[in-house]
Amino acid sequence: MDYDLVVLGGGLSYTGLEILKNKGLKLALVEKDPDHLGGVCLHEGCVPTKLYLAEAQKLLYFKTSRLFEGEVKHIDLKRLKAYKEELSEELRKGILSLLKGADILYGYGELVEPNLVDVEGKKISGRYVWINTGKRQERPPEGYITTDQVFELEDVPDSVLIEGDDPIGYEFACFFNALGSQVFLNLDADLSFMHPSLKIRFEKMLKESGIKIKEKKDDASLKIYAKRRIPNSDCLKVDISKDKYGHVLVDKGYETSLKDHFAIGDVNGLCELAHASRLQAISVAKRLSEGRGFYIPPHKIPYVLYTIPMAYAKVGFTKKDLQETGVEYTEKGITLRPFAVGSMYSAQEASAYLYFDKKGFFLGGEVLFPFAWEVIGFLTSSLFGEFDINLLKRIPLPHPTLVEILNIRLL
């Protein structure tokens, strides 16, 4: 074998490769595009979308403040794009530094035989193979752009129509709305996973911010097709098990139907989140280097819908999950209305629901809060720590903060 491990795809697999490199394994990483090292997360997904939303949130604070006086500045989209590109380049350099000592082959790679990868005519073999090819967007209908192409824009459109079935459409709706565009949101994204009360509050928040829900504007200045991505598994020219969508099927060790071939990240369809991909890569690296990895059930991976001014987040079992499985549970509802921190963030409508089993152990929770992406970390730790309600009540949390409300209301 040429290598101990060959990796197809340069996404978040690098977190696991760093572990294996330090263990002395000979590694090869195949990436189609040198400017796309780091994958969708770094270039079109997590990093740029949250960067754009962070800037939009700053603008929104000024627009909605009762005390701010003077003209509210706009966002220079051209400068924001340039900053995004600078950040992406800086992070790519960081990845290259982490992978120093591994061979990086740029070009389109295919798994042509078990343990054998062809990179545009150059064949390399590996004792182990990781499939980390991620997902791609479909070609949009004529007159539309994809969410990836949003990051090429340099001017703020007067009006935006967003269609498709990917919940990320909600994030882009909030972004353009904060910038001053008239936004028409006509998504078919399923929000049934939300607690009914949170879903009502979520949609109310969007409407009150000025976003037009379930409305079309055929002559919008910009039309965005927010469609769920499809797996990049057509590069696998071997007999390997897939589902009907093309996801590569894996066991709890992320191993495919081919021995010593692993699929990690979005391509396996288990949990299409960057932090899940990172943990899967670390797990497989631990298995190869130490003989044992780990498995995290998808429901224990925190999920966030990064909207503004409030975001939705969940971890563990939701109300819908518990009702469908028939598990006996207790529900604790929480609202920010009686607390000063709710007024500080102009978020009196913020709410959360926590779920406990009949013995009082924490099963999961979902929140609609400002900075929900930070708050959900506390609930994730509580879930993994197997906390019960009595322990949750006693945890000291700083005052005044959003997260402290989650246990104050349990007293």
How would you describe this protein?
This protein is of the alpha/beta class and 411 residues long. It folds into 3 domains: 205 residues, FAD/NAD(P)-binding domain, CATH 3.50.50; 82 residues, FAD/NAD(P)-binding domain, CATH 3.50.50.60; 99 residues, FAD/NAD-linked reductase, C-terminal dimerisation domain (Enolase-like, domain 1). Helices cover 32% and strands 22% of the residues. Strands 1, 2, 3, 4, 5, 6 and 14 form a 7-stranded mixed sheet that branches. α1 packs parallel to α7 and α3 packs across α5. The longest helix is centred in the first third of the chain and has 22 residues. The radius of gyration is 23 Å and the shape is globular. The termini are far apart. The mean pLDDT is 95. InterPro entries: Class-I_Pyr_Nuc-Dis_Oxidored, FAD/NAD-bd_sf, FAD/NAD-binding_dom, FAD/NAD-linked_Rdtase_dimer_sf, Pyr_OxRdtase_I_AS. One of its GO terms (biological process) is 2-oxoglutarate metabolic process.
List the helices and strands and how they pair.
Elements: E1 3-8, H1 14-22, E2 27-31, H2 39-43, H3 46-64, H4 77-98, E3 103-106, E4 109-113, E5 116-119, E6 122-131, E7 135-136, E8 145-146, E9 159-164, H5 168-179, E10 182-187, H6 196-208, E11 212-213, E12 222-226, E13 230-231, E14 261-263, H7 274-290, E15 303-305, E16 311-316, H8 319-325, E17 330-335, H9 340-344, E18 351-356, E19 362-369, H10 372-384, H11 389-394, H12 405-408
Parallel strand pairs: 1-2, 1-6, 2-3, 6-14, 8-12, 9-10, 9-12, 10-11
Antiparallel strand pairs: 4-5, 5-6, 7-13, 15-16, 16-19, 17-18, 18-19
Helix pairs in contact: 1-7, 3-5
